[in-house]
Amino acid sequence: MPASLVLEDGTIFHGDTFGAATNSDGEVVFQTGMVGYPESMTDPSYHGQILVLTYPLIGNYGIPDEDLDERGMMLHFESNNKIWTSGLVVGEICEEPSHWRSKLTLSEWMKKHRVPGISGVDTRALTKKIRENGTVLGKIVQGILSSPSGITFSNQNLRNLVAEVSLSKPTTYNPSGSPRICAIDCGLKLNQVRCFIKRGARVDVVPWNAKLNPTDFDGLFLSNGPGDPVMCKITVDNIRQLLQEPVVKPIFGICLGHQLLSTAAGCRTFKMKYGNRGHNLPCIHKGTKRCFMTSQNHGFAVDAEKLPTGWEELFTNINDHTNEGIVHGEKPYFSVQFHPEHTAGPEDLEV
Questions:
Q1: Has 255 been annotated as catalytic?
Q2: Which of 182, 186, 232, 255 is catalytic?
Q3: pLDDT tens for residues 52-110?
Q4: Which N-terminal stretch is annotated as signal sequence (predicted)?
Q5: For this structure, is 186 an active site residue?
Q6: Is 283 a known active-site residue?
Q7: Residue 347 has what pLDDT?
């Protein structure tokens, strides 16, 4: 069945439908990873986005079973029973995957979750367009369109996407563990919880707008998440209040969590031209000048030109020289823009 990808600037890409035969809109972004599409599509950070995968053949190892670990978390996905991407754009879709864990094809899985995809698109041309002109709003429409007339687009970043992906009630993992980590769920990925549990910690996952009492935890974790950090004013205010408390507890943030901690400390964030999304982005550690390969997924960044007193830059992206982390000079506060815990991706900075 034919389908069309319509961009806000009037450009139309034609292709074939796979997954759910329905329409969907969102911000069109590209990701350069060769593998890891089940993890990426279940990453809450992609909520409200149409994901373009630059690797030419997608779906060749299928989709694994929805196995749960002993704590009720899905083993092979970043969320339980949820695809967060609004749609998927690929060059070629594989309908006959080969992998011993494969239970569904990518198309069958997307149909089950009512997420549309379009294949047969020149993803190289589309990626080049986004790189040169910046991210653009788009819509996957069933059928062949010759004109964008009458098509409306929705800017998802004007909504509080974090509130839509965050849990509503606190959840505790490994209750007998230590230290006690309070994890603010702005779009938390399951592997982040596993990384803490692997190190013996108790993890109390709380909603994005939860009040923070330093006597309730030994350390605070700020998770990744979707959208513009400006929309998370409540979270930023809660973090800022914690930074002013006489009781000092360690704080660590990842991705959106990095942006929220930076904002609470007094930094400014900005929307990037096309963002950084991939599994092999090099970053320099400021202190040692050592280069690390990182996995990233973000469309906003921190302006580190004027860091507040007491803070310094921790990592810098080699490709575009944007900030990749900050650290406090005296207190145990730091955050990184990349994902040290990511699967499938490098594990250079997991520990």
A1: yes
A2: 255
A3: 999 999 999 999 999 999 999 999 999 998 999 999 999 999 999 999 999 999 999 99
A4: none
A5: no
A6: no
A7: 60
If you average pLDDT over residues 199-222, what whole number do you get?
98
Q: What pLDDT sits at residue 344?
A: 60
List the CATH code of the domain at 2-145: 3.50.30.20
Domain 161-336 CATH (choose: 3.40.1180.10, 3.20.20.140, 3.40.50.880, 3.90.870.10): 3.40.50.880
Q: Which of 279, 328, 339, 342 is catalytic?
A: 339
294 Cβ contact partners less than 8 Å away, ≥ 6 residues apart: 281, 282, 283, 324, 338, 339, 340, 345, 346, 348, 349
Closest CA to 188 of 212, 201, 170, 200: 170
Q: Answer whether 59's CB lies under 8 Å from 106's CB.
A: yes
pTM above 0.85, yes or no: yes
From-to residues of CATH 3.40.50.880 in the chain: 161-336
Buried b (16+ CB within 10 A) or exposed e, 187-197: bbbbbbbbbbb
- Please tell me the predicted confidence (pLDDT) of residue 349: 60
